[in-house]
Amino acid sequence: MSTNPRDPLPSERPSRATLEDGSASESVFDSSGAIRVMKPRRAAPHDAVRPTRAEINLGALRHNAMEVKRAANGAKVWAVLKADGYGHGAPAVARTLERAGVDGFCVALLEEGIELREAGISAPILVMGGYYGRAYDEVLHRKLIPVVYDQAHLEGFAQAVRSGKFGNQAAVHLKVDTGMSRLGVRCTDVSAFGASFANYPELRVSGLMTHLACADAESLESLSEQMLRFDEATTALGRVGVRAPMRHAANSAALLRNEACLDMVRPGLAIFGVSPVSRLAAPTGKGATAVRLAQVMRVRSEVISLRDIDAGEAVGYGSLFRPVRKSRIATIAMGYADGLSRSLSNNGSILVRGKRASIVGAISMDMTMIDVTDLPGVELRDEAVVLGSQDGPLGRDVITVDELAERAGTIVWEVLTHISRRVPRFYREP
Ligand SMILES: *Cc1c(COP(=O)(O)O)cnc(C)c1O
User: pLDDT band at 35, cuts 50/70/90?
Assistant: First the structure.
């Protein structure tokens, strides 16, 4: 199948519900004229020649959505799909979750919100990053809900409403900084900021939010302190006439511990089947709900070359590995440019025939070598699993996101979002 390199015109809609996409370029127009926002195109399955791919299990995604809804215990669930749905492909993930009854979505960027609308998503979408450039019109035109914490936001959206093109009021969520020192109105400024809404009858505060810095920490002290400040800010805002029907604070960690759930929760990681609190020996918190999550992404490649080398021969850049015995080395078609962290050099494992083989030498940009000396029967084109489970003639094993993060010295969020756009996503119904 050939692909059309032409950018779609703004009036064009992506063809209906092909499961893989997220690949089209999108356009944004702001009030001053035409500004085009081009999104880089991700490798699509039909142009993938290399056997490296990320498989996205839509059944697991639906399962996690159900578990998260159960844990939310009546609070609305707005799934966080920033950074291309944590690397899973936001459009296909959003369509699946919308059908599974998730109440809304959160993204970081306006561009990400537009991508979901273009994918046919009609549920509420909250744009959390707070950067709108001059594209206030575009936010309202796409029926996105902006997060506001700055006078310039109020002015920008009020003005857009005054244009008359988007009804007579716009819903916004107000963000309060209760301890992240990142975004949001400082607690000391919250009364004054709240009072200024009196100047903007065009704006309706439909949500109050804050973000937690330490929801995955052993101790809940920081979380409790932030929630206390959030309550105080809510009271202060009420006194100046700002009363939101919906308050939200919980990310995955808070939700899984049954803390800070309020009226709505914003889980990202948990939706993709990874728990941010699994490394805690005994997560404290009210958390009585035992939630079972299923990892959604599996990343696989193949053995593309095989050789037998003598003891002492060098493997890879910098000759960082020299075996002490005669060894069989397999080359896998995935490297650090695909998102396999270079910190896994001489450190991680890859599954072949259902068993672990050690990564040997430095990981290259496009390839990785593994030692398969102890795995009988390895052949060219054998599947090599970098993330997820494998059943093979020699056994069954799994490489979790947690394992990769720990070995690479990073966090699980980074492992998922680093799987690069060179790796095509394939959507699977189990
Ligand atoms: C990313 C993000 C979340 C989701 O966090 P997870 O730990 O992935 O559940 C929630 N709220 C905000 C503001 C975020 O930026």
Answer: low
295 lines ligand 1 (CB under 6 A): no
pTM value is: 0.90
Query: pLDDT by residue (tens digit) across 333-382?
Result: 999 999 999 999 999 999 999 999 999 999 999 999 999 999 999 999 99
Contact 329, 372 (CB under 8 A): yes
Question: What angle (nearest 5°) sits at the alpha carbon of residue 1, between those of residues 381 and 43?
Answer: 65
23, two tokens? 């690949």
- Site to substitute for ligand 1 among 76, 102, 211, most atoms within 8 A of C-beta: 211
Identify any residues that bridge with 17 across adjacent strands, giving them in sequence order. none
pLDDT at 23: 40
Note whether 118 and 14 are within 8 A (CB): yes
**Which range, of 34-43, 71-80, 146-155, 169-178, averages the lowest pLDDT?**
34-43
82 is catalytic: yes
| Total Cβ atoms within 10 A of residue 323 | 18
State the catalytic residue, choosing from 131, 165, 317, 326: 317
| Residue the block writes with tokens 């029907």 | 245
What element of type H or E holds 229?
A: helix 221-239
Strand-pairing partners, residue 395, are 392
Catalytic residue among 76, 82, 175, 355: 82
CB 309 within 8 A of CB 289: no
Nearest to 17 by CA among 51, 52, 58, 49: 58
Which residues face 428 on adjacent strands? 57
